[in-house]
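Exam prep: given the inputs below (a chain plus magnesium ion), describe the expected output before reading on.
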Amino acid sequence: MHIDMDAFFASIEQASDPRLRGKPVIVGGRADKQRTVVCAASYEAKRLGIDSAMSCAEAFRICPQAEFVAADTAKYIFTSRAIFDMLKPYSPHVEQASVDEFCLDMTDTEKFLGPAEEVARGIKSRIRSEFGITASVGISENRLFAKIASKLKKPDGLFVLDKEDIASTLKDMPVEKITGIGSSLKRTLNGFGIFIYSDMARFGREFYFNEFGKLGLWLYGVSRGEDGGFVPSWHGEEAPPKSVGHSYTLPYNAHNPELIRAWLRLLCEMVASRLRALELEGRCLHVFLRRPDLVFVSKQKRFQVPTADGAEIFMRAMAVINDRLPRGLEKFRMRALGVSASMLTPAGGSCLFESERKRMDLIRSIDGINGKYGEWTVYPAGVNGIRPT
Ligand SMILES: [Mg+2]
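Solution:
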């Protein structure tokens, strides 16, 4: 059973402020409309064509009378935890898939709780009465298809997708709607004439394995309504990325070195976790800073050993700044900053020293926890209350 909250952030704002109910609500990174993107839009706003990742300025052009609300991450995380706690008694395996999605293993729960569909109705009405928001629920043979089913009747939906109905129900669904099929894989599949779910079934196991290796076996399973679980990584015909970077534009001019360091630390962690997801390490580190007068400063440095450790990347970023900027961060006013790693090589994994091995174990455990309970469940204290929205 996959439970997906409807327009989660915007719905929470509407639930906590009756003035916002029934109105187009746009949750932005900050109350400042000009410089952030839409984090979430209420269904009233979605109906006007506003959606996440659009710039707030554009959303404002579409609907000037929309209510703009600054994202309150702490409130969303608090609600998410409370929903997670509410769900725990329904299954021995309740997993938080993201801040607004939960997955429950309902194998063998029928004799204690009754049919899954009735359980889902009960959960939906509790979410509505206890939190004042709605959720869409999908029930299927496995986690992947339960997730797909949860999107079929949004908002406030409930969809039971029996295994024997998967092929007919999803036949016209574009393949990129399947979690795990990203834009590069979509393009390659399209190249073979595979555009919609029913196209996938026209090819056999051998085809998928020959063209995609391990990932092909996963695709073959998906074409038959199975969930291979872990999606193997695949870079397709494309070479692995040449660099991995993250940047952030501050909503104001910052001159406080502590604050700038906290943002840098956060960006370094984001770069590191993306490197680890790609199974890569980087040797060269670039730091980009943009001053309020829009002058762009870019400095870089090569290091002996490649790394995908956020703390190490942060130390390197500070080394780049201290060596290459005449006065370090003191008196430096800035508007935007970015960190990027290049000279990438496949992750080594051979640790020479006991301390390095322990450090790698720690990082892997943190990745494991964040993978299971959602990004930023565990993060370095140096980030100091700043979190990505
Ligand atoms: Mg959702």
